Q: What sequence folds into this?
């Protein structure tokens, strides 16, 4: 999906969730995991952005929006 979106001219950023992939920082509770998510995601958010997220990433994104009161995306696809 990333490659297909990039081929259409979109600037695509991939975010690895806390304790996933090669990032194995130990966040044993939701508060510290969301704080890490905020730290990683905030620099990627512009004035006009779209989010495509799936599984736990979609859940993290919804929790992040409500807890941190960030600017909502122009559109989002949460699977």
A:
């Amino acid at each position: 999906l990333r490659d297909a979106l990039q081929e259409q001219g979109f600037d695509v950023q991939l975010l690895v969730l806390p304790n996933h992939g090669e990032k194995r920082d130990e966040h044993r509770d939701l508060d510290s995991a969301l704080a890490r998510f905020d730290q990683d995601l905030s620099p990627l958010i512009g004035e006009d952005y779209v989010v495509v997220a799936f599984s736990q990433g979609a859940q993290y994104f919804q929790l992040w929006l409500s807890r941190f009161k960030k600017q909502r995306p122009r559109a989002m696809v949460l699977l």
The chain has three helices and two strands. The radius of gyration is 13 Å.
